Amino acid sequence: MEEPIKKNASLKLEQQLELRVFQEKIKNLNRSQLQEFLVELFRQMMLKDNLIKTLFLKKL
């Protein structure tokens, strides 16, 4: 599972470490746990997008 780290060579060293820790954390999750995790991750990404859009619009 080394590939994502190589693909993200533009990440800062600290971020690469965080990614590696994350990989280890999810490595042993079963399919159901991974599906739940991905749905929650996607939800949080949408919340982040909304926050960024809100902050951006306030600056205009």
Structure notes:
It is a single chain. The chain has 60 residues and is mostly helical. It has helices spanning 3-7, 13-26, 31-59. The model has no long low-confidence stretch (mean pLDDT 89).
Shape: flat
Order of helices and strands: HHH
Spans with pLDDT under 50 lasting ≥5 residues? none
- Give the N-terminus to C-terminus distance in angstroms: 42 Å
Tally of strands: 0
Strand content: under 5%
Mean pLDDT: 89
**Helix share bin:** over 70%
| Rg, nearest Å | 15 Å
Largest sheet: none
Structural category: mainly alpha
Assembly state here?
A: single chain
Question: Can you count the helices?
Answer: 3
Task: Give a quick set of tags describing it.
single chain; 60 residues
Task: Give a brief description.
The protein contains three helices and no strands.
